[in-house]
């Protein structure tokens, strides 16, 4: 008896998603080429190069300062460090020149593209192709996400890690009733996601662990002790990944002062005001609030697939911690897009609505995506 091997097939859905992601990449590359390198990015690059340098092992000082994201420094300094090995000895004096913006920012564009692909995969698995298309379109034309992916900062890295952490945890919880071989790989993925998220931003990792714990306990009512044990093992693996990002250098760990301080107990709503001034921010807030109203008044939409990203997207903007004004909003946006995609998938379901109402809902989805596209292109053209 022949066993048919599973294979990955590319169909219309994958091709459509690839087109969206290609447009996102082109916009990001344009912004990378035209946005000047900031002082913070330059400093992150130089510190990252020192982290990758063998001289770091014998240095008495640390290139990190309190509040640094070690994963950001590693990513910003990776390609410039590799490029230095190709320089001739006569070019050594160029160390004091401004870093190449392409080499500095390319890893962050890669993570932005990766986050978009993960968002589409999750939304499509939860809500079918329509939900995946709406969520991905909003992501690919979102000015805040484009700017985050085109600059060297921790926001896109923490958003990527947080999204992977929470949805990997829910995936592990869904397979706890299956044989152990089904979830061993996911435990390794969950531990890696915890470690990399903490290396990007420790406050984001704490938020992700809280939501992951709540969701895993909710999804495994008869295996809660096992869920907690798996989470504990993943946290142990995540601690190793976190220390690996520091090169197991306790001096750098102390210099970065990554552990939370008194600010972790203070909720704030100031970031919502700031986000309203960002291009496209008000549109995304409006779309999210309209879908929240649909969620509250239509029982059909009130299920875990919609409720989980809604909870995360609603709470993250108020999450306390030490980061730039727009960082937690960038963390929240992928979850908000998944939620909006889920509500639209329910509204466009032929079994519930048809005729003129369904066409009207489809028209609003096109208008929303088109408006996001115009705002995104405005940001790109103005760079």
Description:
Helices cover 70% and strands 0% of the residues. It is mainly α. It starts with 11 loop residues before the first helix and ends with a helix. 45% of the residues are buried.
Question: What descriptors fit this protein?
Answer:
mainly alpha; 0% strand; 383 residues
Low-confidence stretches: 1-6, 89-93
Proportion of β residues? Answer: under 5%
Overall number of strands: 0
Amount of helix: over 70%
Q: Report the end-to-end length measured between terminal Cα atoms.
A: 61 Å
Question: Which sequence of SSEs, written as H and E, runs from N to C?
Answer: HHHHHHHHHHHHHHH
Radius of gyration: 22 Å
In total, how many domains does the architecture comprise?
2
Described by strand count, sense and barrel closure, the largest sheet is: none
**Which structural class best describes the helix and strand composition?**
mainly alpha
Continuous helix count:
15
Shape: globular
Mean pLDDT: 82
Question: What is this entry, summarized?
Answer:
This protein is mostly helical. It has helices at 12-34, 39-52, 70-84, 101-140, 143-150, 154-174, 184-200, 202-219, 224-245, 250-256, 270-276, 281-297, 304-315, 327-347, 355-382.
Which secondary structure elements does this structure contain, and how are they paired or packed?
Elements: H1 12-34, H2 39-52, H3 70-84, H4 101-140, H5 143-150, H6 154-174, H7 184-200, H8 202-219, H9 224-245, H10 250-256, H11 270-276, H12 281-297, H13 304-315, H14 327-347, H15 355-382
